Structure formats: structure tokens, C-alpha cells
Amino acid sequence: MKNIFKYNISEAKTQTIILCVSLSFVLLMVGMPVSAQVGLRRNDFSLGCNVGTTLTEMNFEPKINQSYKVNPTFGLTARYICEKYFTTICGVQAELNYTNLGWKENIEDGSGNTYHRDLSYLQIPLLMQMGWGYEKKGCKFLFEAGPQIGINLNSTESYGGVWNTDNRPSHVVEQYGLNVKNKFDYGITGGFGMELSTNIGHFLLEARYYYGLADVFDNSKKGDFARSAHQTISARFTYLFDIVKTK
Questions:
Q1: Which of 178, 172, 53, 180 minimizes the C-alpha distance to 106?
Q2: Which of 145, 121, 207 is nearest to 18 (CA)?
Q3: What is the reported pLDDT for 111?
Q4: pTM score over 0.90
Q5: CB distance 224 to 178 below 8 Å
Q6: What is the reported pLDDT for 3?
Q7: Residue 1 burial by Cβ neighbours in a 10 Å radius (0-12, 13-18, 19+)
Q8: Within the chain, which residues score under 70 in pLDDT?
């Protein structure tokens, strides 16, 4: 138990540092055009929507044998392009998304049991975005990264087979029926994509990875898990239309 307590303290310090660095990076990119004025100013604001798929699992300590659970995600997207610095188009993208997270267990004890947990979230990523390519018409390559927060809305469990936990090889069964301790989630996300800009709007295809820094379940000395955080891979399609456009 002392080792778990030490793990939690060092993990918390690491999480705080990573999140602060990520947030500072985004704020630096937003403030750079105002303070430096070295690039070509832009004032492009776009709104739209996104839809996609996530592959999700949980980072547990002690470990639980899992496979990726496939879930839908969809939401609203707002983007502000603030500067073109040489060939780099710089901006910020914010989203409000509904996503179903959780995990699916690989139970290989011969019992025929199945189990998965659905954890639904409202998520708000704030992303620094940089693009290289055609600005008005044509394609460009995108890189984006930044912090993300989320609020847990619901938690449901699905059991299958004649339920029996006596023969679990890992002997980790505390997750069954365990209530969510922390409704607030936070972490860092980043990825790559392509954008096609046309007369009728912008079409984006993106792939991202999210690393959760907050634990879903109790990670105190009395808790069952020292680590219980989200990890997701997502692919999404976004459509944006211009509200304000630099002439």
C-alpha cells in the first residue's frame, strides 16, 4: 500500500506538469500574433460539426486484460485562424463533444463471461492547430495538440454468460460494480489530419490520441486501483463553414 501511495504522489506531479506544459503551449500559440506581430495576420472564424469513432480502453494499475471498445463520438466545432507565419497557418480549435468511453475485458478463464463498461462524457478539447498547404482552396496537412477536459454523464455495466469471477487468472475483480469516483476528467490530446478547403466550406479528416491524466476510480490508499485513466484513439470527420473570413 505504501508503494501505491508513492506511485500516486509521483503520478500526480507528472500529470500536473504535463497538463501545465500543454496548456501553456496552446496559450503561447494564441498570444504569439498579438505580441510578436511577425506573421501575416488572419481573422478567420468558422463553425461546424464533427462525427467519428473512438477506440477506447482504460489504463489500470493493477492491470486488467482488455481489448479496444468501439464507440461513436459527435459534437460541435469552432475554429479561429489567427496568423500565417511563413508557410505555417496557425489557429485554435475548440470542440464540445459527446463520447462513449470505457473498456471491454478479455476474459479467458473458460467461463464464457463477457463484460464491458460504458462511460459517457461531454468533452471539451482546446487545440493548437497548425497547417501547411493551400489556405483558401485546396488541401493542407494539419497538426493539432492541447489539453482536454470532460464530465462523466453516465456509467453502465454489461455482463454476459453465467457470471462467475472465481477463476479469473489475474484475480482482479474489484472493478465490477465499482462506482465512478471522479466525474471530472482531464488529459492531453493530439493528432494529425488533412483539410480540403472549398467555396462551400472546409472538410477535415483527423486522427487523434488522448491520454487521460485523471483517475476514474478512487486512487487513495483505501481505493482499489492506483491508476484508472482513459486512453483513446479516434478518427473523425469535421465540416466547417466560414463566419468571418480575411479578405
A1: 172
A2: 145
A3: 82
A4: no
A5: yes
A6: 44
A7: exposed
A8: 1-38, 247
Fold assignment, 2-244: Porin (2.40.160)
* Residue with grid cell 497548425, as numbered in its chain: 130
Can you read off the three cell numbers belonging to residue 4? 501505491
Peptide bond into 169 cis (omega under 30): no
DSSP sequence for the chain: -HHHHHHHHHHHHHHHHHHHHHHHHHHHHHHHHHHH--SEEEEEEEEEEEEEEEEEEEEEES---EEPEEEEEEEEEEEEEEEEETTEEEEEEEEEEEEEEEEEE---SSS--EEEEEEEEEEEEEEEEEEEE-SSSEEEEEEEEEEEEEEEEEEEEEEESS---TT-TT---TTTTPPPS--EEEEEEEEEEEEEEETTEEEEEEEEEEEE-S-SS--STTSS-SEEEEEEEEEEEEEEEEEE---
At residue 26, the pLDDT reads: 52
pLDDT score for 33: 46
AA letter at 141: F
pLDDT of res. 21 = 53
- The three three-digit cell numbers of residue 185, written as one number: 476528467
C-alpha cell at 233: 484513439
Sequence length of the chain is 247
